[in-house]
From TrEMBL:
The keyword rRNA processing does not apply. Keywords: Repeat, Riboflavin biosynthesis, Transferase. GO terms for molecular function: riboflavin synthase activity. PROSITE patterns: LUMAZINE_BIND. This is Riboflavin synthase. Pfam families: Lum_binding (PF00677). Lumazine-binding repeats lie at residues 1-96, 97-193. The keyword Chloroplast does not apply.
Amino acid sequence: MFTGIVEELGEVTAVENLGDAARFRLRGPVVTQGAQHGDSIAVNGVCLTVVEHEGDEFTADVMAETLKRSSLGVLAVGSRVNLERPTAVGARLGGHIVQGHVDGTGTILDRTPSEHWEIVKISLPAELARYVVEKGSITVDGISLTVVDAGADHFTVSLIPTTLALTTLGLKQPGDPVNLEVDVVAKYVERLLGDRAQGAGK
């Protein structure tokens, strides 16, 4: 489990095409401290497994399904990525419960800067709109954010200078894809209420 609090802005140093998969090598001095084979690291919000670790770099295999459902397929050498290690038991939950299981992708539609923050508008797949509510939580490229405005096909978030400086959202421009993970609690509630309604109709 992750919290959506990005630990560092890493970099893709190599991409190997494996046909039905890809192997990424990524640099991240913070997240590689004590890393071992089999450990999990979230890369732009996608939970990946460490295959090899040497110095401040690690490699991770990404299956075709993940490449298809996330924006990892557009990564290239030099791409910057958000990195986070799983939260430790007993640690503070600084963001919200994040699984690292991407629900879909959105696209940066617009950026509106102001003196102390920036409003970013992101497209929202129709099948995810029901899980996104004003002042609710959403994960964008692995970053735990609060929804400012929720529309039928988009939502907005307000970014503070720290988020702009230390994550990929400071670099993304209109047209760039982002990974989205909606609040898992909303999905569980929907399922439970659906099961209850079906039970009542019997």
